[in-house]
Amino acid sequence: MKRVLGVVLMLAMLACLAVVLVGCSEEIDPPLGQWREIEPGEESIWEFRADGTGVVLPDNYFTWSVRGDRLTMVWTGEGGGTVEHDFSIEGNRLTFVSRTTRFRRRFERVA
Q1: Beta strands in the chain (DSSP E)
Q2: What is d(CA 33, CA 64) in angstroms, rounded to the nearest whole number?
Q3: What is the mean pLDDT of the chain?
Q4: What whole-number distance in Å separates Cα of residue 98 and Cα of residue 71?
Q5: Per the domain annotation, does 20 fall within a domain?
Q6: pLDDT of 4-53, one tens digit each?
Q7: What's 59's domain CATH number?
Q8: Strand, helix or coil at 36?
Q9: How many domains does the chain have?
């Protein structure tokens, strides 16, 4: 009886661990499409393409990837670099926050 109880408790602990691990690895849908920055004084349109490339119109290009709630963008061209953001999408709103400066940007879906 003690052995059965031990096995049941171990299985319950493994099930709890699996639930926690699945919850931690939840993927957020990628920000595909065009997004208009909605901060005062900002008129930029950002486009995230399915092939992992993007552009801030008309000609600031980057590549991007998503892992969990982290959006990594690698800017190409002069002055390029890598930037990481925590991001979320709620309905037609995209928000990302720089992981280094904590600067927040908000967008609304265009297309």
Answers
A1: 33-37, 45-48, 53-56, 60-67, 70-75, 82-90, 93-98, 104-109
A2: 13
A3: 81
A4: 9
A5: no
A6: 544 444 544 544 434 333 444 467 889 999 999 998 787 899 999 999 99
A7: 2.40.128.270
A8: strand
A9: 1
